[in-house]
Design brief:
TauD/TfdA-like, AlphaKG_dependent_hydroxylases, TauD/TfdA-like domain-containing protein, oxidoreductase, 19% strand, globular, seven-stranded mixed beta sheet, TauD-like_sf, alpha+beta
Length: 405
């Protein structure tokens, strides 16, 4: 299990490295040069015991490996869209809350088996998967917000039936990803997902990250970027295995507004024959209304270099998706990093995504022991009847910053 430390624990007096939420390539290269000058033998440090020299297979890809988006986009046919429409009308007629959505209350007799096969072949099977798939495209403008969320949950139940708790404060199992700076003061915003700023490559909690695009930014930007964490691992194993050792060690991760204030946990795991990286950059740097506390241990210079290496190698090998209104993007969060570009809204079109964290209990990967407790909180902590699906954007409690008053 992850080691939990209390405020009374002995704290190092060393300073937090010069590292921000938004990666700075010049600082990364300078830190790398400085550390290698101080210790030229760093690249000769072997991999952590038992870790593979390289990972092969379909999940270890580079962006240049993909030439046609039909390789990852499944475009719904007219008949399948009609089946979805019949399913949402049937579900509404039952007068049930969205948490009651299941294959029996949202029947997709033809499309359902197709979605299940996509989940297996594109997301879960290390022999065939690329780690992501996009379902295109739901005609969101023809439906109400409730209907759109029902469609989202209805399709998702065939991909990965178990939904994770996103907001312990409300019981929310969905999150609205949109710029809320006009609604909340900046001191209350502790995550870039509630601004129009770019997000560096990172991992979310949980197995499958699903994003449903209700609207794109009228002024452009907001591109969705994906990268194989297995390809990043291979690069580090070849050139800087010492950094994989750093990632396999324990980081002091900020818990933001919770007790205890930080948790010691690794970011890199080798479990059940698979490499899993949980890239939690924000928990190491803080962001805007949730800066990193000075009362918890700082990360080390080596950890700062490793964090930046994850981002800039992901940037090197990433694939940028043509994410469109009505698309649903599913990503295997255990073998992928995701990021987004900065965007510009207009009064007519404001970028708006809806996020669900999912797990397929039948196909999902085994979770490393240090992550088991976190997964229990995500997937087992809330009864089905208490799951909330807010129709409008609200701040997730874990991302709520500190009031300036």
């Amino acid at each position: 299990m992850a080691t939990i430390l209390s405020p009374a624990a002995s704290l190092s007096q060393s300073q937090q490295p010069d590292i921000d939420y938004h990666p700075d390539e010049a600082k990364w290269r300078a830190r790398t040069a400085r550390r290698l000058a101080d210790n030229p033998s760093l690249p000769d440090i072997p991999l952590p015991a038992g870790f593979p020299d390289t990972i092969t297979g379909s999940l270890a890809w580079e962006g240049k490996d993909w030439n046609d988006e039909t390789e990852w986009v499944y475009t719904l046919s007219t008949e399948e869209l009609m089946e979805i429409d019949e399913a949402v009308q049937y579900f509404e007629g039952l007068n049930l809350p969205i948490y009651q959505i299941s294959p029996s209350t949202f029947p997709l007799p033809t499309l359902g088996p197709v979605l299940q096969q996509l989940s297996s072949s594109h997301l879960h099977d290390p022999g065939t998967a690329r780690g992501f798939v996009v379902i295109r495209s739901i005609p969101v403008a023809t439906y109400t917000r409730f209907q759109n969320l029902a469609i989202y949950a209805g399709i998702s139940v065939y991909i990965a039936p178990t939904r994770a708790l996103q907001d312990p404060g409300t019981g929310g199992v969905i999150g609205h990803i949109t710029d809320l700076r006009e609604t909340f003061e900046s001191s209350l915003l502790g995550a870039a997902s509630y601004t129009n700023e770019s997000q560096p490559f990172h991992s979310d909690p949980g197995d499958i990250v699903a994003l449903f695009c209700l609207e794109v930014a009228g002024g452009g930007g907001g591109g969705s970027k994906l990268a194989s964490s297995w390809r990043v691992y291979n690069e580090l194993a070849k050139a800087r295995p010492d950094l994989l050792g750093v990632l396999a060690g324990k980081f002091p991760l900020e818990m933001f507004n919770r007790a205890p204030p930080y948790r010691m946990r690794s970011m890199l795991f080798h479990h059940d024959g698979k490499i899993i990286i949980q890239n939690a950059r924000r928990l190491c740097t803080g962001y805007m209304g949730l800066p990193r506390s000075k009362d918890i241990p700082p990360i080390t210079e080596a950890q700062a270099e490793a964090l930046d290496a994850l981002h800039f190698l992901a940037e090197k090998y990433h694939l940028k998706l043509n994410f469109q209104k009505g698309d649903i993007q599913y990503v295997n969060n255990l073998c992928m990093f995701h990021a987004r570009d900065e965007f510009l809204d207009t009064s007519e079109k404001r970028r708006h995504l809806v996020r669900i964290w999912l797990r397929n209990d039948e196909l999902g990967w085994k979770v490393p022991p240090p992550l088991v407790k976190r997964w229990e909180v995500l997937y087992d902590a809330i009864p089905l009847e208490k799951q909330k699906f807010p129709l409008e954007p609200e701040l997730r409690s874990a991302s709520r910053g500190h009031t300036s008053k």
